[in-house]
Description:
By secondary structure, the protein is mainly alpha-helical. The protein contains 4 helices and no strands. It folds into 2 domains: 36 residues, no CATH class; 51 residues. Helix 1 crosses helix 2.
Amino acid sequence: MENRETQIQLRTSFKEKKDIKASATALNLDVSSYIRALHAQKELPPPPSALEQKQLVELSRIGNMFNELVTLVRTGNAPDTTNTTVLIETMTLFIKYMEAHK
């Protein structure tokens, strides 16, 4: 058997913890063995394509700008309506693009 030298800490809800323990017990396994067995059998999704990676970066950038805008609005420093309208139109176009390329 391989020497287990390190630990992984995992945060779960109380219900998830209870369910994981119950599933492990039902298979007569301790939690660590159960999670390793799940990991060994898990088929991972393919990594995002170059296009999807670019879209994720752009979506993150748009999300950051949106958060900045919300902060400005909350603090009473909102930009003029022209900039807000352009931002909303841009976000609408991006959402339509993403929906068309699912």
